[in-house]
Design brief:
This protein is mainly beta. A hairpin with a 5-residue loop joins β10 and β11. The N and C termini lie far apart (41 Å). The protein is built from no helices and 11 strands. The mean pLDDT is 95. It has one domain: Sandwich (Immunoglobulin-like), CATH 2.60.40. 0% of the residues lie in helices and 62% in strands.
Length: 132
């Protein structure tokens, strides 16, 4: 089953030529002196696709949830089809993706869970704390 092999909250990320570039990663605290305010971060993930599923279509789901109220602020799903004819038998394919959360407005201070999952499997959860 395809799964998230790594995930990080960062200032900026991009994918170029199949490689993931991350700037200022590992964010856990966001200083927001006034609200509402933009979340202002990106979610960078790498999906591991096993050899036997390389040509299949997979769904990658990203969500942002305000922990205290359990309010889902964002839910977006994209289709992913990894296909690389050079993959060796038994080799997994690693596919980088970036979800921009820069413009997502947060209504209050506190904890926000950023969750990513593949094919409705167990999600990778990263928590960031908005502080004044």
């Amino acid at each position: 089953m395809a799964d998230i092999s790594s995930a990080i909250v960062c200032d900026f990320a991009q994918v170029r030529e199949g490689l993931l570039f991350v700037s200022s990663g590992g964010i856990t605290r966001l200083r927001r002196p006034s609200l509402p305010a933009p979340l202002g971060v990106a979610l960078a993930i790498v999906v591991e696709v096993p050899f036997d599923q390389v040509s299949a279509t997979h769904g990658v789901l990203a969500r942002v949830v305000h922990v205290a109220s359990a309010t889902e602020l964002l839910r977006t799903e994209v289709g992913l089809q990894a296909n690389d004819p050079t993959v060796e038998p038994g080799e997994s394919l690693y596919v980088p993706l970036v979800v921009s959360l820069h413009q997502l407005m947060i209504p209050e201070l506190g904890a926000y869970d950023i969750v990513a999952s593949v094919d409705h499997g167990v999600g990778r959860r990263l928590t960031v704390y908005a502080v004044g």
